[in-house]
Description:
Mean pLDDT of chain B: 95
CATH class of chain B: Alpha Beta
Strand content of chain B: 25-35%
Number of strands of chain B: 5
Largest interface: A-B, 22 and 26 residues
Strand order of the largest sheet of chain B: 1-2-3-5-4
Organism (chain B): Streptomyces rubiginosohelvolus
Number of helices of chain A: 11
CATH topology of chain B: Heat Shock Protein 90
Oligomer: heterodimer
CATH architecture of chain B: 2-Layer Sandwich
Radius of gyration of chain A: 31 Å
Pfam families (chain B): HATPase_c (PF02518)
Helix content of chain A: 55-70%
Distance between the termini of chain A: 91 Å
Strand content of chain A: 5-15%
CATH class of the largest domain in chain A: Mainly Alpha
Number of domains of chain B: 1
Protein name (chain B): Anti-sigma regulatory factor
Number of domains of chain A: 2
Order of helices and strands of chain B: EHHEEHHEE
Distance between the termini of chain B: 22 Å
Structural class of chain A: alpha/beta
Bound molecules: adenosine-5'-triphosphate, magnesium ion
Low-confidence stretches of chain A: none
Structural class of chain B: alpha+beta
Number of helices of chain B: 4
Largest sheet of chain A: 5 strands, mixed
Amino acid sequence: MELLSTDREKITSEWIDGVTSSLQGRISKAEVDRELRELYEALVQGLRAGGEETRGDGFSEVRALLTELSRNRARQGFTPSETAISVLALKQALEPVLRNDSAEETTAYLRLGRALDDLALYTVEVYTRTREEIISSQAAQLMELSTPVVKLWEGVIAVPLVGTLDSARTQVVMEKLLQALVDTGSEQAIIDITGVPAVDTQVAQHLLKTVVAARLMGAECTVSGIRPQIAQTIVALGIEFGDIVTKATLADALQHALRKSGVDLVTHQDARR
Amino acid sequence: MTVPWASEAPPQTQPIIGNDDVVRSRQHVRAFAQQCKLSLVDQTKFITAASELARNTLVYGGGGAMRAGLVERQGRRGVAAVFEDSGPGIPDIELALTDGWTSGGGLGLGLSGARRLVDEFFLDTEVDRGTTVTIVKWAR
Lengths: 273, 140
Ligand SMILES: Nc1ncnc2c1ncn2[C@@H]1O[C@H](COP(=O)(O)OP(=O)(O)OP(=O)(O)O)[C@@H](O)[C@H]1O
Ligand SMILES: [Mg+2]
C-alpha cells in the first residue's frame, strides 16, 4: 500500500507505458491511460480495505474493472498474455521504487507481488470464460446456418442433417422443417440422416416428434440415409420407428415422396443402356 | 468394479455439467474407440451407449463426470467409460432397466439399451449417494 502511495505519478506512467508498448499500439495510449488510472485508484483502495485478500470484498471494485478489461481484450482478439500483462506490468513499474534496499520494503513488494499475480490469474479466468461464451454463441449461429431446408420438387422438401445432433440443434432443425412445410405448402418431407454419426434415444425422440407434428399438419415424413451401423444400433437400443417410412438413400426417399404426391415417374431403362 | 485401464495411457476425465459436455464425452469416446480399432458398428454402438449414460448423468444425476480410456485384459484391447454422479441414486434398479420405463419424459431405453450395446455393463447405485455406470467394449 505504502509502495503504491509514494511516487504515484511515476509508477502509473511507467505502468501505462509498459502496457501500451506490449499491446503494440492496438489500443490507444489514452484508452490504456484511462483503464489503468482507474485500476490504480481501485487497487490502492482495495489494499487499504482488504489487505492482500484479492478475492475478498475489499477488492470487488478491482475485480469489476479487471472483468471489464479482460472481456474487452478477449473480444478484441488479444492473447491471454496480452491481457494478464495489464496487471503484471505494474510489478515491473514498481522495481525502480525499490532502490533503497530495506528489508521491510522488499517484504512489502513481495506481498504486493503475490496479490498482483493473483489478480493476473483472475484476468486469465475471465478471459477464458469470455472466449468460451464467444465460441458457444458462434456455435449457435453456425447451427442456424448449417441446417438448410431444401425444396426438391413441387410439394417435396428435404433437410439433410450433418454432424452431431444435440438437443438444441435438433430443435432448430425440426422447427425449420415444420415452418418450411407451411411456407412451401408441401405435403412430403424427407429427413436425411446420412451425415449423422450416431442416433441415440434423444435424437430418435426428436425425429419421432417431428414426424408426428408433420402428420398433424397433414404432411408425411420419410427418414432416409440410415446407414448399416446406425440401423444396428437403433435396433439394439430398442427404438421402434413404428409406421414411419424409412429408406436407405435420399434418392429412394425422393422416389417414394414423388409417387405419394402423384408425380408419374417413368424410368427410361433403354436410354440408360 | 476395477477397470483394467491399459498401462500405456491414463484414462481421461470429462466433467459432465452441461449439454455441451455430452457432445464432448461422445467425442472422447469416439477417439478411444477408433484407437483400439473397434469395427464401425461397434464404434457406433459404444458411442451411442456413452451418449445415453452421459445424458442420464446430466439429467438424473444432476451432473458428474466421465472417465474414459483404453483397457487391456489377457492380451485383449478395448475401450471403457465410467460415468459417475453423486445424485439421488436409483431406488429400483430392475425397474430402471426395464425397456420403456422412464421417470422423466424419455423413451426409457437409454439405460437398458446401453446395456445391450456393450460387452460389459456394471451399475452401482445407492439412494442419496449416487450412481456409477461402467461400460466396456472389446475389439474383436
Ligand atoms: N444417473 C442416474 N441417476 C438417477 N436416476 C437415473 C440415472 N440414470 C437413469 N436413472 C433413472 O432410470 C430411468 C431410466 O433411464 P433411461 O436412460 O433408460 O431412460 P430415460 O433417460 O428416462 O429416457 P431415454 O430413453 O431418453 O434415455 C430414468 O428415467 C431415471 O429415473
Ligand atoms: Mg436416458
